[in-house]
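TICKET #2291
ISSUE: user wants both folds in one file
ATTACHMENT 1:
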Amino acid sequence: MMRHSTRKKQLILISLLFLTLALIPISTSTGWYKAPLLDILRVLFMPDKSPLSTVVWDLRLRRVLAAIVVGAILGGAGTAIQASMRNPLASPFTFGLPSAASLGVAVALLILQGGTIQRFQIYIYNPFLVSIFAFLFSLMQVLIILLLAYKAGLSAGALVLSAIAISFTYQAILYLLQYLYLNEILVSTVVFWTFGDLGRISWTELNLVALISVVIVLPYFIFRSIDYDLIISGDELAKSSGIRPERIRLETTIIAALGTALATSFVGVIGFVCLIAPHAARLLVGGGHRYLMPTSMVMGSLILVLSDTIGRVIIAPTVIPVGIMTSLVGVPLLVYLLIKGGKYGHRS
């Protein structure tokens, strides 16, 4: 029976992985500029100087690959945070990272004069300035969380509530900056950044995010899979098994925040993926993190690719930012999964 269950989980994981890979050429061929799938495959393997090749390589393929990388980070980070905190609603985004990153964007655009307005367009002097400050402010929020956890001695539940409360402070400061200093164009820029848009990331930024996620973030989550099972069962059982739950919580928080903050700083705020992906994966493969963790990563990639594809075709040629699509789809889906999923942490 256990062997059958394991084979079923492996089959589900492999099927989701192949489905995600199959969506790469399909999503690349989808959009206002239509092209046959065979032509897309030809351009993918044999690039040329045709307009189709420009559309594929300069626009669509980059955002599809970004969806896969960012989705894997968010799915894995959400699963890791939920397990280490023993809270099914915990995630990097409930820790207030989006609010902190948004404040960093406003600071970069206005206080440091990171750009100028010319003919109702914003030109950024340093293209990395906005991303750097979004990342730094996200890390600042992480340091505050760690201080609350290990200096104030807050419990996991109190830590999540404190992080949510602090995020309201960031929002208040952001609104104050918008009211006192930002003009309507800069306010629109900050708001648009919070929507989340996979199209704004460059190849250089995508390579950076992919490198850090493949070398550091994702391998760490996979490596700690068994430890997460023990932590969910209780700190006493985990300690009796030779692991240190406090240290793992600290490491998980830092690694998850690093990956999430890095991805967020380049593509903006993309919500609900770190909540939806773990719960959807848990319904498919159960609560054991040996298969739950990689399934959550693949599920995050799959959700983000589908959301971005739908956003590009639903009212084409207008492209709906993927952050809006994941929120529209995510709210009812998350409620359904929470009702359907039953007790958190059940393993099959």
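ATTACHMENT 2:
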Amino acid sequence: MSGMLFAKSILAGLALAAPAGPVGIMCVQRTLTRGRDHGLASGLGAAIGDTFFAFIAALGIAWVSDLLTTYQNDIYRYGGVLIFFMGIYSLFSKPKQDAPPATQTTGDVQDLEAKSRRAALLWADGVSALTLTVTNPASLLAFASVFAMLGVFIDPAGGVVLSLLGSGVVVGGCVWWLGVPMIAGTLRSKMGPQHLVWVNRLAGVILMVFGVISFWSSF
């Protein structure tokens, strides 16, 4: 029984992560233009967001569901604005360039500063992907539909079962969200600087379109 629930949870996490959307576009774009680690950070943030909706859907937490439904249009509106401006940022951003070799005297300082900037950017990538994921209330309905189809429903008192559900959804989401940048990362070495510029531009336009659609649908 536990093994079947875990398997169903993995399928649910994979099924809900797979459809292409703004987060998927952003994950691929960051992998190609910044590096595989930035795509992995974005994928992890998206997986955490999917897990949040999975718990709500499986537990049937009415007040959270009602809250998301009540403010659905506002969430779509603000989410659309966020996606649109992230598209503008992508449109005009430059691909990450390899740092020039540092001299012996300044190498340690430059290396420390580079690591600090990299860590901050990785955190920002994960948080922004998480934010975009949770500003899509449709994910809650999608998880509820998938769980109903798979026959998954959790008793709030069942802590062990709840843990199986959460870990299964995380595994399923990570298979997709961490697999995408791993695959896309193999293409990065084959693309020149000009190609990466156009990846940013294309991703920016697509994100802006998603943002406009999300904003418009709120009305």
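RESOLUTION: both attachments delivered.
EXTRA DETAIL ON ATTACHMENT 2: The chain has a mean pLDDT of 75.
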